Amino acid sequence: MIRQANEKDCARIAEIEVFNYRLNFYPIFRNDDFYFDELQVPSLMAEYQQNEALLHTTYVYDDGVVKGFIRIRGNEIVKLFVEPVLQGQGIGAALLEYAVGEKNTRCLWALEKNARAIAFYQRHGFALTGERKLEEDTTEYLVKMQR
């Protein structure tokens, strides 16, 4: 069910990413220009199509339909998103377990105000390290989590 992403997955990956960004991060950042103008499925899809490295480091949960994805860089989880209407069904857990078990990932950065994500990662063996850094071009902090 989990496999490396390919070009046919670009539209679904972009769609999942856009809707998660709007649902989870818009309430924190409240940036209409970014979330409803700049962040669009067609432009993000094109970015995936034009950047082979993004697809090479992205793995999708696919049971006939792509329902979520995870991006890994080295031993770090860079992104993990599940289609919002399908969250809570074990898809994120499966992607996370794949990353840890198959790709030896051990750390990630989460938005400090995203309590739901932090709790999810803690339930799956990640712990806050105490390390923080500013999210680029914002006043919000990311927190490092490690397993």
What is shown here, in short?
The chain is α+β, with helices and mostly antiparallel strands.
Describe this protein's structure.
- With 147 residues, the chain is of the alpha+beta class.
- It is built from 6 helices and 7 strands.
- Strand 4, helix 5 and strand 5 form a beta-alpha-beta unit.
- The longest helix is centred in the N-terminal third of the chain and has 20 residues.
- The two termini are 24 Å apart.
- The model has no long low-confidence stretch (mean pLDDT 93).
What structural class is derived from the secondary structure elements? alpha+beta
Number of helices in the DSSP assignment = 6
Residue ranges: pLDDT <50 for 5 or more in a row? none
Could you tell me the strand content as a percent range? Answer: 25-35%
Q: How many β-strands, per DSSP?
A: 7
Question: How would you spell out the order of helices and strands?
Answer: EHHHHEEEHEHEE
The pLDDT mean sits at 93
Radius of gyration from the CA trace? 15 Å
Helix content estimate: 40-55%
Terminal residue distance: 24 Å
Main sheet summary: 7 strands, mixed
Give the spatial strand order of the biggest sheet: 1-2-3-4-5-7-6
> Which shape, going by the Cα principal axes?
globular
Pick out its properties.
44% helix, seven-stranded mixed β-sheet, 147 residues
Layout of helices and strands:
Blueprint: E1 2-4, H1 10-29, H2 32-38, H3 41-50, H4 52-56, E2 58-62, E3 66-73, E4 76-82, H5 91-103, E5 107-111, H6 115-123, E6 127-134, E7 141-146
Parallel strand pairs: 4-5
Antiparallel strand pairs: 1-2, 2-3, 3-4, 5-7, 6-7
Helix pairs in contact: 1-3
